[in-house]
Amino acid sequence: MRLILIALLCLALPGAALAQASPAEQTMMRTVEAEHDRHVALLERMVNQNSGTLNLAGVRAVGEMTRAELEPLGFAVRWVDMSETGRAGHLVATHPGPGRNVLLIGHLDTVFEVDSPFQTFARGEGARATGPGIGDDKGGVVVIVAALRAMQAAGTLADANVTVVLTGDEERVGSPIGIARRDLIEAGRAADYALEFENLAMDDGAEFGTVARRSSTNWTLTATGRTGHSSGVFSEGLGYGAIYETARILDAFRRELPEPNLTYNVGVIAGGTPAAIDAEGFSVTASGKTNIVASTAVARGDLRTLTPEQDERVRGRMLAIVDDHLPHTEAELTFADTGYPPMAPSEGNRALLARLNAVNRDLGLSEMAEFDPARRGAADSGFVAADVDTLGGLGIAGGGAHAEGEWVDLDSLVRQSQRAAVLISRLSLGE
C-alpha cells in the first residue's frame, strides 16, 4: 500500500521536478505530500489554543506543542522566560551539525487576545481555512515543522546545522527590547543564513520573495502653550497655544518629509486644557472650551523606513521641524525604544532569493520576484538582518492578517514546506 501511495505521489509531481531534484529532495516532496493531513491537524490544534501576546499561559502552551514536534527530530529545545519584560518567553531549538548554520524565525503569539470573539479554526470551501493567527504566524510555524520532518525522512537533517527561534511577543514586543530580543539577535550573529516564516507575499495570485521589510517605530509628540482667554490668541502675550503648534508640526511632516519607502502615520491625537495620553499610548483624554486657548496637545503615530540611514535622516528632520516653535509654545518628540529595525535590502538577501528560485526551478514551481517592501509590515527578521543574509515571507499563503476572518490556503502549506525543506538542506549542507 505504501509503494502504491508513493507511486501516486510521484505521478502528481511535475516531470521537471523529478528530473532536477535529487533523490533526497524527491523524498522530501513526497513526505510533505503524505503528511499534509497531519500538519493541517497540527495547525488546527495550534489555532484553537489562544495565544494572544498577553495570554502568557497560552503562548507557553503553543510553545509546548512545538517542543513536542521538534524534540523527536533531535532538537535540543529550551524555553527562555521573559517575565522581566512582561511577556511569556521564547522557544529556542538547536540541531547542531557540521553544516552551515541556518536560523529559522517565527512567532508563537497572535494579535487576538482571550477577549476576542475570533477564537477557532474553521474549514471553508476547498483549501481555505480561517482562524486567529492561522497565517500570522501559526501557519509559518507548521511550515517549519513540516520541512524539518521532511528533511529527517530524506536523511538531510542528520548533518544539518539548524537553529529555530520562535518569539512569544512579536505582535507586542516586551520591554526593555534589548532583553526581549537578546536571544534572537545572538542567534542571528551566529548564523550563516536566516529564513523568516511570516506569511508568503502574494499579489493577484503570484507569489513573491521578501528581501526587505520596513522598520516600525512609534513616536509621541507633546506640545504645550500658554493658556488664557481665546480673545488673546495669536497675540504677543499669549501666542498660538498647543493645538496650533501641533497642527504646524504635523502639517510640516506631511509637506516636507515624503520620500520613497517612507510613511509616518498619526494614529491618535487630542488637545485641550488639559490633554493627556495613557501609559500604553493607546488612549487619549482632553477637555476644554472654545473660548480657552489650549494648554496641551498630544499626538502619537508610527514611522516606517527601509534602511537605518533613512531612519536616522528622517528622525533628524522630524526633530528639526518640531524645534521651530510658534510663539510661546514648546514641543517635544520622542521615539519609543521598542521599535522594529528595518530588514534593509542587500545583495546577500537577493542572493538568498536566487537560491530559493533555483529550488523553485528544480521542483517545478514558479519563480518569485522581489516583493515591494512598502507593502510588507515589520517582522523579527529586522533584528538579525544587519548581521546575516536574510530571506523573509517563507510561511503559508493567505490574507486578512490581524483581522477577524484571517485565512490561509492550506494547499500552500505543501508548496512552502517543500520549498523550505530543500532550501534549508541546500544552505546548511552547501549544495
From TrEMBL:
<dbReference type="GO" id="GO:0046872">
    <property type="term" value="F:metal ion binding"/>
</dbReference>
<keyword id="KW-0479">Metal-binding</keyword>
<feature type="domain" description="Peptidase M20 dimerisation">
    <location>
        <begin position="211"/>
        <end position="329"/>
    </location>
</feature>
<dbReference type="InterPro" id="IPR002933">
    <property type="entry name" value="Peptidase_M20"/>
</dbReference>
<keyword id="KW-0862">Zinc</keyword>
<dbReference type="InterPro" id="IPR050072">
    <property type="entry name" value="Peptidase_M20A"/>
</dbReference>
<keyword id="KW-0121">Carboxypeptidase</keyword>
<dbReference type="InterPro" id="IPR011650">
    <property type="entry name" value="Peptidase_M20_dimer"/>
</dbReference>
<keyword id="KW-0732">Signal</keyword>
<dbReference type="Pfam" id="PF01546">
    <property type="entry name" value="Peptidase_M20"/>
</dbReference>
<keyword id="KW-0378">Hydrolase</keyword>
<dbReference type="InterPro" id="IPR001261">
    <property type="entry name" value="ArgE/DapE_CS"/>
</dbReference>
<feature type="signal peptide">
    <location>
        <begin position="1"/>
        <end position="19"/>
    </location>
</feature>
<dbReference type="Pfam" id="PF07687">
    <property type="entry name" value="M20_dimer"/>
</dbReference>
<dbReference type="GO" id="GO:0004180">
    <property type="term" value="F:carboxypeptidase activity"/>
</dbReference>
<protein>
    <submittedName>
        <fullName>Glutamate carboxypeptidase</fullName>
        <ecNumber>3.4.17.11</ecNumber>
    </submittedName>
</protein>
<keyword id="KW-0645">Protease</keyword>
<dbReference type="InterPro" id="IPR036264">
    <property type="entry name" value="Bact_exopeptidase_dim_dom"/>
</dbReference>
